[in-house]
What we know:
alpha+beta; Pnp Oxidase, Chain A; 8 strands; globular
Amino acid sequence: MAGGGAAASALSSPWRALLQRALDANAHLKHSTFFQLATVGGGGRPANRTVVFRGFQEHSDKIQINTDARSNKVIGEIKEWPLGEICWYFTDSWEQFRISGIIDVMDGSSPDPAKLQQRERAWFASSVKSRLQCLGPSPGVPVANDDHVKDVHIDPSAGPVDAYCLLTLDPEKVDYVNLKSNQRLMFTRTQEGDESGDWMARK
């Protein structure tokens, strides 16, 4: 089962069933778990980057993304302008998902115990190799000595390091296109801000 996390449980949203089917159909392609995340950058300009799907938050349709809290500019911009949109294209099945919603930033400074627990669960669900990235040089800083990177080690049983940050995108609208069947579906959550809200679909 591709994607990890609570991928197959409680598929309550119609678009999520389509997404899981696409993940399964493209599971043999490593890049099928990569997608583009667009946010609002400084001065209202668009900012975009490629990130990795880290599964769904438990009992939720929220999409999880790992990032480095030392990316102060990026984290600060998202906290100020939490709107985001995912563009996810599956090259084998010719399916595209554009998923827009609100992004929540969960770093070690969060005052919410539930968010800290979710951050910890996501940390342990990540591979040790992925966790090691949070112990390397800060993003955007040149690496003067490769030996420093090679010598970094981590205790697999240790909790999240300060640099680890979990992002979750809470979907509000999903635009699905299947280029093979020429099918397009638009899904809109009828009660924005309410995870239990119903979804309305139209062609």
